[in-house]
Amino acid sequence: xxxxxxxxxxxxxxxxxxxxxxxxxxxxxxxxxxxxxxxxxxxxxxxxxxxxxxxxxxxxxxxxxxxxxxxxxxxxxxxxxxxxxxxxxxxxxxxxxxxxxxxxxxxxxxxxxxxxxxxxxxxxxxxxxxxxxxxxxxxxxxxxxxxx
Length: 148
Prior knowledge:
- With about 150 residues, the protein is an alpha+beta fold.
- The protein has helices at about 45-55, 80-85, 105-110, 130-135; strands at about 5-15, 20-30, 60-65, 70.
- It is about 20% helix and about 20% strand.
- The chain is elongated, with a radius of gyration of 22 Å.
- This is ABC transporter family protein.
């Protein structure tokens, strides 16, 4: 069973494509507050692992525990995009199509506003025009060409 501060725990996760073993019993624990980087050679299984976590691929064996809730029932065919979303898991891949005006947390929540772990401000903070004028007034000592 996962520790209380464990966000995601994988145990013995396997994925095969015909005779090719893409994931061979992967064990991984991601604890709260920890940033994890997944690094490896081409063909090492990084994308396959992320696709399993995201639910776009179902694992052939193993268990996935999210926020202490096990999904260990017969994994084949049961871990889907919907179950991953219900568990609060999302993947943002290297080829991004994000909204540049949003924060990382806001981009992650676009398709799932109930995603746990992030709080959005109720409204974007409006600029303080008086403060901006004060800051800009300091530039009066600069020549015209440096005031841009």
